[in-house]
Amino acid sequence: MSSTQGTTQGVIPAQLLRGQKALVTGANSGIGRATAVALGRAGADVVVNYVTGGEEAEKVVEEITGLGVRAAAYEADVSDEQQVVAMMDRMVREFGTIDILVANAGLQRDAPFTEMTLAQWQKVLDVNLTGQFLCAREATKEFLRRGVVPEVSRAAGKIICMSSVHQIIPWAGHVNYASSKGGVQMMMETLAQELAPKKIRVNAIAPGAIKTPINRSAWETPQAREDLLRLIPYDRIGEPEDIGHAAVGLASDLMDYVVGATLYVDGGMTLFPGFATGG
Ligand code: NAD
């Protein structure tokens, strides 16, 4: 993966999230990594969650602390209730509280429908949907306990669910993944409705095609790249930083009135690009 160093410099106002404590799950790679660094650049202290790849997580921590804010790497499987509870307890103990959760951890286990095993189905639902449920629930308990601290933020807490364009675009060969993201959409909107009166803002980012290890085969070869670009009106594959920037904006008070929204960050992938010339 390309380093995120430098690419966001000068773009993100350094004080935007000053004094806020953020947790990003699956933050030792790809989008999570870029989001954790972008939040740090905006002045937040950041917990970098990982489940495997502790060394990578430590590198992200180093990059973030180099920005002059606090960071730490916490190991936890987001699909394991006890581990999520323990992670949140530790964050409150060591960082004082949590203001921003980016529920980003996710994976794919692809297979044609009739060959998909129950284990493949279950694993993707467990991590992509149940993992977000568990992290959001534990973060919300702390938001409610603490309430609004006006010097820090107008909201008592912000939750950003990492969804996908596949929350609305069906995806043959990936029924587990598309179902998990469809679930994330309804979970996010329901939580947004339920928690808005408590001044907790729940929103989602739906990335299009972003260059990370999760979809290497879709951008690695020139042919794959060409095929992919045909689906993207803006004619470039997304970078993890594109999502990091969106997360900083959504988490900040600049977007305090944004509640229950999905921000599609996809270069126009959801605009039915086939209809640009057909239909
Ligand atoms: P990635 O593989 O680089 O990162 C996924 C991260 O999640 C990794 O750090 C991985 O270790 C972690 N993870 C997996 N299972 C976990 C678990 N049980 N507990 C904690 N962490 C776990 O891929 P990415 O592209 O950066 O994906 C991040 C998120 O963005 C995912 O939710 C993915 O569905 C979503 N997304 C990605 C794209 C894209 O084009 N890359 C598009 C749409 C949505």
- Can you count the helices? 8
Classify the secondary structure makeup into a structural class: alpha/beta
Small molecules bound: nicotinamide-adenine-dinucleotide
**Tally of structural domains:** 1
Unreliable parts: 1-6
Fold-level CATH name: Rossmann fold
Helix content: 40-55%
Main beta-sheet strand count, sense and barrel state: 7 strands, parallel
Order of helices and strands: EHEHEHEHEHEHHHE
- The CATH class name reads Alpha Beta
Strand order of the largest sheet: 3-2-1-4-5-6-7
Quick one: how many beta strands?
Answer: 7
Cα end-to-end separation: 38 Å
What is the beta-strand fraction?
5-15%
- Based on CA atoms alone, the radius of gyration comes out at 18 Å
Description:
- With 279 residues, the protein is an alpha/beta fold.
- It has a single domain (13-276), classed as 3-Layer(aba) Sandwich (Rossmann fold), CATH 3.40.50.
- It is built from 8 helices and 7 strands; from the N terminus they run βαβαβαβαβαβαααβ.
- Helix 2 links the parallel strand 2 (45-50) and strand 3 (71-75).
- Helix 1 (30-41) crosses helix 8 and helix 4 (118-146) runs parallel beside helix 5.
- The relative contact order is 0.14.
- Mean pLDDT is 95; it is low at 1-6.
- Nicotinamide-adenine-dinucleotide (NAD) binds at residues 25-26, 28-32, 49-52, 77-79, 104-107, 127, 131, 162, 164, 207, 209-210, 212-215.
